[in-house]
Amino acid sequence: MINLDLTHLSIFRDLPADERARLRESAQVRRIAAGDTLCYAGDPADTLDLLVAGRCTVFPGADVIAPGLLDPAAGLGGLPHTVKITAITESEVWRWPVAALWDSVHFRETARRWLARALLDAQDRRDALAAPVSYQGNSAQVMPGPFMFEDVTLIFAFCDANLDDLRPTLPDGLRIFRRPGRRRNSVLLALADFPVAYSEHAPDIRFGYTETTVFVPVWCGRRIGLFVPYIYPSTYAPILPGREVYGFPKRLGFTALAGRAASLAVDGTDHLALTWESQQASSEPRLVRALMDWLGLEGWSLSVAFRAGDTLRQVMGLPPFRAVSVYNHKHIPGVDSTPDAPTYAVNQITRAIFGVLRWYQIARLDAPALAVTAGPLAGADVHLREAFRTQLDMRLSSGRVVK
Question: Do residue 175 and residue 314 come from a single domain?
Fold first, then answer.
């Protein structure tokens, strides 16, 4: 029998230690061969099942990797299973009769709170995914840019990585920017919470979401800008305009920002996690210097120029504004496209401008640590150089075709 610490699962975490020990000792162990089915939709759910080793697929739904509960709402709610659960690999499951679990006062209280939190999380997730999409009139055309983003919390993680696998996938017309003498490429991870976003053409239709974006500095002709190979918003509302209008390769993911941590999960798998010990108030010149050092350019002289520019703006009564070009590969499959022979009705490089309208706060993160555990950057040997947490208002301009 596998020795599993039940405190790793929130439903058991608040139980007394002796209660957790009793559960470990009383668990019924079932081993499942790869390809075997644990249950079908409609089967009675009279046990609480915990996957302690292996991997199972839950249809319809997502895979469960040990340790994880298997259809707990059915068991704890006295309902029949609503899913089919099949082992992908050889697996081990611990089972407890639900009737016996309810005899424990401690478990009843803990399970009730766990179910309440799960219900609230599900309602929040449903509301986020049901956020409105801005359409033009009665047509099915999504609203074009520009887009506004207010009260944004944005974490900049300046990194180095090996992008040899990404280089062949760049569209013609873009090439990765790397300063001479550097052996590794620059990668910027931006983890953001957008509580208020809207098209300038429809300011009353507002939505919120979180997002993680991977930026890579590139040359487009003689211009330096940022290319987006991967981007993960948490709702569908930004996916449609992002892909159709600008060409952002948006794919659903979940970004979580907490007090001293931020993370990204995609399809139920943790992709990356950023943690830090504390944060210290900083400034735009310090952030700009970090940006220039990340690119391999001399940052100090440029940060001084930015500070002089701020003074000039104050004298002239102008608002602070910073902008960066973002390039995307907008390619929409044609009607005759197939996986083996893809064709594209639209195949363009687009350029848009991200502008900072106002900084509210800039803080440098102390002792930041980054772990990349899955996803397209898992094999890129990503190394974190420096990280900042900011609050700001942003604007994404209308896009235009550059090639």
Answer: yes
Model pTM? Answer: 0.78
The number of C-alpha atoms within 13 Å of 374 and in the hemisphere containing its C-beta is 10
Q: DSSP string covering 90-102, please?
A: -EEEEEEEHHHHT
Position 136 in a domain: no
Amino acid at 28: Q
Per-residue pLDDT of the chain (403 residues; tens, 9 = 90+): 677 788 888 898 889 999 998 998 899 999 999 999 999 999 999 999 999 999 999 987 778 888 999 999 898 988 999 899 999 999 999 999 999 999 899 999 999 999 998 888 888 878 877 777 778 888 888 888 899 999 999 999 999 999 998 988 899 999 998 877 788 999 999 999 999 999 999 898 899 999 999 999 999 988 888 999 999 999 988 998 999 999 999 999 999 999 899 999 998 789 999 999 999 999 888 888 888 888 876 554 554 444 544 555 455 554 455 788 899 999 999 999 999 999 999 999 999 999 899 999 999 999 999 999 999 999 999 999 999 999 999 999 999 999 8
Residue owning tokens 């992908």: 88
Query: What is the bridge-based pairing of β-strands 223-233 and 322-333?
Result: parallel
| CA-wise closest residue to 155 among 276, 236, 251, 270 | 276
Residue 95 shares a structural domain with residue 193: no
**59/207 same-domain check:** no
CATH number at residue 388: 2.40.400.10
Looking at the structure of the chain, the number of domains it has is 2
Please tell me whether residues 174 and 304 are part of one structural domain. Answer: yes
Domain that holds residue 47: 6-129
